Each structure stands twice: as structure tokens, then as C-alpha cells.
């Protein structure tokens, strides 16, 4: 695998000195403790992670991390190499916002009465492309996906109408011009299927086990 | 015709040849160590690793276990063993305090890329997270200071995890690996499959792919250079590329200087070896770093102790950087050409493409600077005229007695810089020192380990009076197991390096650097180790010869000048070309 290409090819486009938002995409084995290993790479350098999402990828046993930080090109490039150096990490990409398509999911809990009574709310929601996830007597939960500004704007718009609770997910992103790491992943998988994760199966058997 | 008896015998024989094994997790662990070629283990038992020690009782003929006096001693010994022998060092420790005592050694091994496999015991799996007796979260504590670590809660995992551990520790850029095994897994009886060594991990690429175009670009730069200069580090030794490196410098005729971790990769006397880089390195290599037009960095990582101030470092030079770890290239110094790969593979490719050349005028510049250094620093250090003995003259005598064949293990401080500057080495893996972490207390236990790694060589531990007092308990290990280590304490009754800084940069405010010492000779003798003390030059040579020729271990304390400084010196925050001779 040729890391150099992916780590170097964006150099000209990126603002080399100035800080900007970068999304780091990490493909890694699903292994206990790896999140910590990756997080340490940031905390050791006192770099704040703005958003972190980790979830299974399309291949069993391989997880995909999306990490958002605001840093200079040079710092991000070094971070990416340090992450890729970890034994369980298969591949790291990093991209500016122009190079990715990304979404965040936001959930809004609002009073159902308010919604029912005030037609403007309904219009508001339609305007933001929200969908109702749950409708109860006491409240309704709407979901919106989009960029931060979009989900933020709806928070502002809902404030006057009893926004009871709000939650937003981490960013997930797809790189516009990655020629499909998916294919590579499948190759890896065919060559050497992921191992089963062994967790601590003895943890709940405490009282049944005699120890000294 | 086969009788039933014959058939039975055949079946039994079959069972013996197939290498499946029924036994405990502890036994399968020890079998695995034997399969990996381990002969020597440094360790200290305790409650949570007791099943492994119990199994070890039956393996005494195959696995030599050295009982250290402190786990820190155990891991430093494993480091010394690995560095001297080129094999993977192995150490055992129990859970909790045993495991936390390994942390310094892990950090040292991590930064100096030393291959280690450390096995720690852990409380029963069902007790994890309950603050059980001697429970600590070893995995999380050691994550930043290991190349890889893993907690085993089920014995079935042991063979595969152990095989992975050895593969990860020694492949690519080597490093320390820790396996934490819960007590239930050590006791668990299973039928284990045959032990299979690991040679591939899906997500792990120890060696980056060598890209020929970068080697071509590097060769072009080198061939066009008027003042090319090679900086080499431990990567040459770790890659076992000493011969390839020598061929490269000899063909290209380029002067080469070393970091302290690269010391010994080529003989000290080699005509193209121009000396040591960095804060206490030689005058010429430092000054000329800022004059070279092409710098070829091989298996070194531009540590701040080597570069001094980065914004004034080699700005005029094109940089070619060869390293196995892609994360090192461009990390501190931006490379014009980065050659990723194991230098054992990349160097021959580069040697093929470089022109055969001699750089006589350029080399002569190094000699000019060297002459200035000889006149102003080296001669007064090696042949002092005053009554006080210098550390340098002790090293000169050692060189004269051993002729460059001894393995020299140093602790950290002034004596370390003096030893690295002046010790003569004919062979690779002869200089063992704590480079990146600068761990005081490293010297004595690392020397014990080195002696087990290369039992036929003379191993001399050179240690300051301060560093010795950090791990003196390991004299007990020598007493019990008889590692014939020569211990040379250079005593200036100060924490010398700190004192030097206080003198130069803190207006001579000697804040807590005045350290008193016990009677080292009596201390050694209390451990039944032969010892003596020298405070006059007239007795020095004799005493050194006695120490080196002594059959077993020997401690020699030499009283040296109190306020001698190590020069040259690149003061912190200065450029390498601002190196001071005084």
C-alpha cells in the first residue's frame, strides 16, 4: 500500500501554514484499546478533537473513524503518519472540507402541543428538511442531517417554540475522490479474514470463581 | 503383520510428533518463548504471575531466568540484552507495582527502538475493574510507551498473541511490546494447536515499499553534491546494514558522522568516520552541518539534541532522509527526498547509483576543525596536566587496554557524553546507552543484560555517582547470578551534567546537585563483588587493568575532577554552528 501518495497529494491545495478544518479518516481493526491509542496521539500534542465518530465499516472487523480537528496542514500530515504507524491501523486519509462530503445528524425534541398549534413550526421543519422520528402526546422528535450551520440554524429557529432537548452526532464523511478503499478492504479481507474479538467473558462470573 | 501393540505405539509416536499441546496457559506461554528462540528471561515474581513462575520451575534447563532486584532493573537488563545481542529481550513482572515499575524501561525502549517482549501478570479476569489487590490498568498505563500491547483473559489466545508480540517487537522499526495475562488464563488448561510463528498482520506494514524513483532522485542529488555529508543513527544497526552502509560511504567517499545511538555502526577508526553529532558532539560535524550542500540522513530521526535550533539547522542543504518509519521523514527536518524503507534494502540500491568519488578537500575541512578540537579540548581532556583526573583520560586508558573490543554500557550524564565521545569501537552493537529518554539508572542493569547477550565479550558499565545510586540494588543480581560485568563509577561528587548547565546557564547557582555517595567499594564488597577505588593518576592504569582482567564482576570507583565540563557544547536553543569549544 502506498501511503505517500495519499498523504502528499493534497499539499498544493491546502493552506500550508494556516489552520483549517481537516477530517481524518482512519481504517482500523476493531480492537479494544485502539481508540485510546489513537486519542493519545492527539492528547500528547495537546490537540483538541472537535468531532469523533467510530463505527463498523462495510467489512467485518474493520472500523472506520472520522476525526475532525482544526490544525495546519503540516500538523495534520504528521498526525496522520503517527496514526498510520499504529499496528492495528490499515490506512489513514486526511482531507479539507472541500474534498469531502460530510453530514451530521441532529435530533430535536419539541413539545407536540407547540407543533400542533403553530403552523409556522411545521413550515419551519419542512424548510429544514426535518423528519419526525417519534410523535407522542407530550413531545415530538425530529431529525435533521446536514452541515453544522444547517443543524445550528434549526436550533435557533426552534428556540422560541420550546426546544426541550437537542443532540448532535459526530461528523461522518466520504472522500470525494478516493478511488474506493472499499476494494482494497475487500482484498485484505479475502487474503486474511478479520479475527473474532475476544472480550472478557469472565467478568460477570465473579462469585462463581474461587480465587486467592 | 502389525500387532495391536505396534499400532498403539505408532499412534503414540504420532501424538508426540504433532505439536499440539495440552496444558496450562503458563506452559503454552513458556513453550512459545522457547519456539521464539528465547533463552534468557529477566524478571521478578509476584502473586499475579505465580502460575507462570510455577511452570518455569520445570523449564529450568531450557529457559534461564535471572532474578533481578527491581522490575526496572529487569526491563533495563532485557534492553541491554537486546541491544548487545540483536535478539528480542524478554522480561516478566507481576501485576500492579510490578508492571508499573516497567514503565520507565518501556519508555526508554520505545524511544530507542529496542525490541522487547514484556509479560505481566494480571488479576483474575473476573476481578478486572474492581480495584483488586495489585490491580492496575496496565494496558492503558503502557499504551503511550509500547509499540503494541494486549491483555489476555483467555488462555486460548496466548500462542497467537505471543507470536504476534515477537513479530511486532522485532519487525520494522523495533519496539517494546507488552502482554498482560490474567491469572485465570495462566491457570486455564486447554488443548493448544501447534505454535505458529507470525510473519504477517493484516493491518501492519513494518516495511514501507521501496520506491526506486526516490532512490534515483537521492542519487542525483548526491552525485551533484560538492559537500555531501552523511548523518547516521541506530537505524543502520537495527537494520543490520553495517556492511551495506560501509560500502555506501566507501564508494561515495562521503564523510559520515553519527548520533550516539549510531555509535559503533562503523569502526571509530574508519577514515570516513568524522565523529559525533549533537549537543556534545564533535566540532567539525556540527559546524559543517551548516555548510554541507547535501545531507544524507540514514536511520536517524533528527532529535533535538542533534539538531539544536531547528530554524537555523542546515538551511543551505538539500536533505535526503532514509528511514524505515515513514512518520520520521519530515517530522523535524523537511526532507527534499525521502527514501522510505529498510536501509538494508535501500542502501545497496543507492550505492549502485552513486558515483565513485573522493571528497578530499571537503574531508580536509573536517580534519581542520578536528585539529582545533584536539588542541583545545581533546588533548587537555585525554592527557590532562593538572592533578585532577578527567573522565576522558579514564576512557583513553580503557581504549588502550581493550583496543576497541569491549562492549561499553553507559548511564546518563557527563560520563555518558565523555564515553560516547572517546570510547573506541571496532564492532557494532558495542555502545549501549540510553539515548532518547536519558534514563539515569539504566547503566548497571543494562550492562548485566548485555553480558548475558554477549557472554564472551568484556562488558564495561560506565556510570556516574548519581546514576549508580538510582539502581544500585542490581549488585544483588550480579552477586546471585555472577554476570561478570565491570563496573566503573566515575565519581565527581556532583550530578555533573546538571551542575554544568547550572554553571553555564544559571549563574553557578548549584541547586541540589551536590550528591554524597556511600562507600561504593564497601557497598560492592557487601555484595561479595571485588572492588577498589582510585584517587590518584599513578594508580589509574593498574586499577583499570585489574578490573578488566579480573575473572568475575568488579567495581572500580575513580575520583575525577569535580567541576570538569564536557565540551564542545551546543547550548540549548542555539544553532549547531554556534557550538562552543569552551
From TrEMBL, chain A:
<dbReference type="InterPro" id="IPR039557">
    <property type="entry name" value="AHAS_ACT"/>
</dbReference>
<dbReference type="Pfam" id="PF22629">
    <property type="entry name" value="ACT_AHAS_ss"/>
</dbReference>
<dbReference type="GO" id="GO:1990610">
    <property type="term" value="F:acetolactate synthase regulator activity"/>
</dbReference>
<dbReference type="GO" id="GO:0009099">
    <property type="term" value="P:L-valine biosynthetic process"/>
</dbReference>
<dbReference type="InterPro" id="IPR045865">
    <property type="entry name" value="ACT-like_dom_sf"/>
</dbReference>
<dbReference type="InterPro" id="IPR002912">
    <property type="entry name" value="ACT_dom"/>
</dbReference>
<dbReference type="GO" id="GO:0005829">
    <property type="term" value="C:cytosol"/>
</dbReference>
<dbReference type="InterPro" id="IPR004789">
    <property type="entry name" value="Acetalactate_synth_ssu"/>
</dbReference>
<dbReference type="Pfam" id="PF10369">
    <property type="entry name" value="ALS_ss_C"/>
</dbReference>
<dbReference type="GO" id="GO:0009097">
    <property type="term" value="P:isoleucine biosynthetic process"/>
</dbReference>
<protein>
    <recommendedName>
        <fullName>acetolactate synthase</fullName>
        <ecNumber>2.2.1.6</ecNumber>
    </recommendedName>
</protein>
<comment type="similarity">
    <text>Belongs to the acetolactate synthase small subunit family.</text>
</comment>
<dbReference type="InterPro" id="IPR054480">
    <property type="entry name" value="AHAS_small-like_ACT"/>
</dbReference>
<dbReference type="GO" id="GO:0003984">
    <property type="term" value="F:acetolactate synthase activity"/>
</dbReference>
<dbReference type="InterPro" id="IPR019455">
    <property type="entry name" value="Acetolactate_synth_ssu_C"/>
</dbReference>
<comment type="subunit">
    <text>Dimer of large and small chains.</text>
</comment>
<comment type="pathway">
    <text>Amino-acid biosynthesis; L-valine biosynthesis; L-valine from pyruvate: step 1/4.</text>
</comment>
<comment type="pathway">
    <text>Amino-acid biosynthesis; L-isoleucine biosynthesis; L-isoleucine from 2-oxobutanoate: step 1/4.</text>
</comment>
<keyword id="KW-0100">Branched-chain amino acid biosynthesis</keyword>
<keyword id="KW-0028">Amino-acid biosynthesis</keyword>
<feature type="domain" description="ACT">
    <location>
        <begin position="23"/>
        <end position="97"/>
    </location>
</feature>
<keyword id="KW-0808">Transferase</keyword>
UniProtKB/TrEMBL annotation, chain B:
<dbReference type="InterPro" id="IPR045229">
    <property type="entry name" value="TPP_enz"/>
</dbReference>
<keyword id="KW-0786">Thiamine pyrophosphate</keyword>
<keyword id="KW-0460">Magnesium</keyword>
<dbReference type="InterPro" id="IPR012001">
    <property type="entry name" value="Thiamin_PyroP_enz_TPP-bd_dom"/>
</dbReference>
<dbReference type="InterPro" id="IPR000399">
    <property type="entry name" value="TPP-bd_CS"/>
</dbReference>
<dbReference type="GO" id="GO:0005948">
    <property type="term" value="C:acetolactate synthase complex"/>
</dbReference>
<dbReference type="GO" id="GO:0009097">
    <property type="term" value="P:isoleucine biosynthetic process"/>
</dbReference>
<dbReference type="Pfam" id="PF00205">
    <property type="entry name" value="TPP_enzyme_M"/>
</dbReference>
<dbReference type="GO" id="GO:0003984">
    <property type="term" value="F:acetolactate synthase activity"/>
</dbReference>
<dbReference type="InterPro" id="IPR029035">
    <property type="entry name" value="DHS-like_NAD/FAD-binding_dom"/>
</dbReference>
<dbReference type="GO" id="GO:0030976">
    <property type="term" value="F:thiamine pyrophosphate binding"/>
</dbReference>
<dbReference type="InterPro" id="IPR011766">
    <property type="entry name" value="TPP_enzyme_TPP-bd"/>
</dbReference>
<keyword id="KW-0479">Metal-binding</keyword>
<feature type="domain" description="Thiamine pyrophosphate enzyme central">
    <location>
        <begin position="215"/>
        <end position="348"/>
    </location>
</feature>
<dbReference type="InterPro" id="IPR029061">
    <property type="entry name" value="THDP-binding"/>
</dbReference>
<comment type="pathway">
    <text>Amino-acid biosynthesis; L-valine biosynthesis; L-valine from pyruvate: step 1/4.</text>
</comment>
<dbReference type="GO" id="GO:0000287">
    <property type="term" value="F:magnesium ion binding"/>
</dbReference>
<keyword id="KW-0028">Amino-acid biosynthesis</keyword>
<keyword id="KW-0100">Branched-chain amino acid biosynthesis</keyword>
<comment type="similarity">
    <text>Belongs to the TPP enzyme family.</text>
</comment>
<protein>
    <recommendedName>
        <fullName>Acetolactate synthase</fullName>
        <ecNumber>2.2.1.6</ecNumber>
    </recommendedName>
</protein>
<dbReference type="GO" id="GO:0050660">
    <property type="term" value="F:flavin adenine dinucleotide binding"/>
</dbReference>
